[in-house]
Amino acid sequence: MLGIGIDLGGTNIKGALVDDKKGIIEKFSILTEADNGCDYVLDRISVAVMRAAGFADNEKPIGVGIGSPGIISWDRTTVSTPPNFPGWDVVDLSKEVKKRTGFDCRVENDANCAALGSSRFGAGKDFKSFVMLTLGTGVGGAIIYNNKLFRGDTGGAAELGHVIINYHGPESNSPSRGGIEAYIGQRFLSRYAVDILRRHPNNPLYKKFKSEPEKMEPLDLFNAAENGNEVAIQVLESAGEKLGYAIVNYIHVLDIRKIVVGGGVSNAGHWIFEPARKAALSRLLEPFHDGFEIVHEPLGNDVGLLGAASLALEVIND
Amino acid sequence: MLGIGIDLGGTNIKGALVDDKKGIIEKFSILTEADNGCDYVLDRISVAVMRAAGFADNEKPIGVGIGSPGIISWDRTTVSTPPNFPGWDVVDLSKEVKKRTGFDCRVENDANCAALGSSRFGAGKDFKSFVMLTLGTGVGGAIIYNNKLFRGDTGGAAELGHVIINYHGPESNSPSRGGIEAYIGQRFLSRYAVDILRRHPNNPLYKKFKSEPEKMEPLDLFNAAENGNEVAIQVLESAGEKLGYAIVNYIHVLDIRKIVVGGGVSNAGHWIFEPARKAALSRLLEPFHDGFEIVHEPLGNDVGLLGAASLALEVIND
C-alpha cells in the first residue's frame, strides 16, 4: 500500500512516496516560499503531492498525510496560525489539498508525525508506548500510548519543550521560563557554549564561532567533544543533565519509560544521552528505574515523512 | 446498586456503604493497628467490609473496592510493599478479602481512588478529563482522561508530587529534589512557615508553633491569613505560586486543563489557589489558557471512599 507524506516547513516542503511495508520509496524537497502567501503555498504543497504520486508505478497512493506547524484541529483537517507563514489564519488544509489533487488528506502536527513515524518504522517500533523528543531549534514532543498518539483534550498534548525544570531558570521564546527548551534548544545551547568559551579564548571552538555563535551546530560540539575538547564536553554534559530532569517529569506524569530522541541536537549522541540517563536515574522514584531507556532515533528527519504518510496509510482512531 | 468502599491507611481503615446514585449511605473508621502484621490487618479489613455490608437493608452490595498505599498490580488485585505496613511484601488483597468475606474485591492506589470518586460524585463530575491533586502530608496525583483513569505503562502514572519545578530546589523524602511536594507537602510547608516566622518573633503563629512546627496545620495558616496575618499570607502565596508551576508542567504534558484539588492543604483555599492560577497563567503557552481552571474538591476525604466503591460499582476497562 502506498501513501504520500508531506513535511511542511517554513523554508522547505519535503515530500515522499511511502510503502507501508518498505518505508520511503522516493523523497525530495522543494522551496516553500512562504512569503508569497497562503494560496501560493497551497499550490506548492499540491506540486509536492503530485510529484510524490508520480513516483508510483502501477499502484495509486491511497492518500496524503501532512506534518504541519501550528495548531491542528482535533479532526486533523485544519491548521491555525502556523508561525512563519504570513497570511495564514485558519486553513482547511485537508479540503484545499483534496480540491487541488483529488487525494484524501489528513494533517497532524509535525512532532506527532515524527512520533508516528518512529512508532511504525523507527526506534519506537519495539515500544507499545514511548515519549518522542525532537531536539532541534526548539524541542518538540509527542507521546505514543498503546501504539496511538496521546493527544490530550484538544490535540495539544506533549508540549514537552515547555516543561519547566527550574522556575527561575533562563528565558526562551516562550512564557515557560526555565523550560527544557531554554537549556537544550539549538540556539540556546550554542549561545551558552559561546558564553562559556569566552573564558577559554584559546579554545578552537571559540575562535571559529565567537562572532557568529548561532552558526555553531550540535555536530560542531560533538566533533570537538570527540576530539577531547573539554569545554565542548562540559557544555554537552550540562545540557544532557537538564534533559534528564525533564525526562523525570515526563516519566513521573506518564509512567512511560521509553524515551526516543531525534532531531539535530540528538546527533551529539552519547555526550548528551549518558549524562541525561545519569541525571534521570538520580531523581526518578525507584519503581520507575525498571525499563527506563533513552534511545536515539536513527532515521533522522525521515520519521516526519514516514509518520505523515502513516496518517494516510492507517485508520487512526484517537 | 450498592458497593463497599474501603480506604486503607497506616493508622485508620475507613469504610463506607455507597449507593451508585446517592453516594455514601453510611461511613465509619476503625484502627488499622498495622504493627500487628499482615494477617491481622487483613482481618481488620474484613471487619470493615462486613460492617459496611451490615448497613445494607434489603440489597446485597455487589463487591468491595479498596484504596491502598503501595504499588498496585495492573489487574488491581495485588499490593506490593505499602509504606508503614510492617510485614507486608506482596499481598493478593483481592484474594484474601474474597476468602474472608465472600465479596469480589478490587484494589487501586489511593490517589487514583480519590480521582475516581471526584469524577463520579465530586467536582470532577463535570469534566471528561482532569488532573486530581491531593494536597496532604505528601502530594498525591491522578489523571482522569475521557472519564477513565490514565494509568501509564504499568499503572504507576501521575506521581505528580514528584514533578520537578526546580532541579536544584529543596530535598523532600524522595529522590526528586525540587519536586512540588518539597514546597507544598504539609510537613515542608509548616517547616518553611516556621523558618520565615523566626524573623517575626512577635507573630502569634510563631509563638504558638515555634517548638512544634509539625503541629501547624494548613488550617492554622488559613485562619491566620483570613485574620490578616502577613506572614501566613506570604507563606501560602509562595506555596501557591510553586503549585502553579507544577500545574504548567501537567498541562504542557497532558493538555488537560481542569485541575481538581483536594486534601488537607487545599483547605487553605483561595490563599493558595489564586496565586497558583496567576503563576500558571504567567507560564502557560497561550493556547492552553482557554478552559484552564483550578477547582476545589468539596467532598474532602469522602472522594477516596466513593472512588474505592466505584471500583466495585463499575466495569472499569483501562
Task: Report the biggest beta sheet of chain A as strand number plus sense, adding barrel if it closes.
Answer: 5 strands, mixed
- Widest β-sheet, arrangement of strands of chain A: 3-2-1-4-8
The tally of beta strands of chain A, per DSSP, is 13
Which CATH architecture of the largest domain in chain A is right?
2-Layer Sandwich
Order of helices and strands of chain A: EEEHEEEEHEHEEEHHHHHEHEH
Output the radius of gyration of chain A.
20 Å
Distance between the termini of chain A: 22 Å
CATH superfamily of the largest domain in chain A: ATPase, nucleotide binding domain
User: What's the total helix number of chain A?
Assistant: 10
The helix content of chain A is 25-40%
Supply the number of structural domains of chain A: 2
| Regions with little confidence, pLDDT below 50 for 5+ residues of chain A | none
Strand fraction of chain A: 15-25%
Sequence-ordered SSE layout with sheet pairings:
Two copies of one chain form a homodimer.
Chain A: E1 2-8, E2 12-19, E3 23-31, H1 38-54, E4 64-68, E5 71-72, E6 78-80, E7 90-92, H2 93-101, E8 105-109, H3 110-121, E9 130-135, E10 139-145, E11 148-149, H4 181-184, H5 186-197, H6 204-209, H7 218-226, H8 230-254, E12 258-262, H9 270-283, E13 293-296, H10 302-313
Parallel strand pairs in A: 1-4, 4-8, 9-12, 12-13
Antiparallel strand pairs in A: 1-2, 2-3, 5-6, 6-7, 9-10, 10-11
Helix pairs in contact in A: 1-2, 3-10, 5-8, 7-8, 8-9
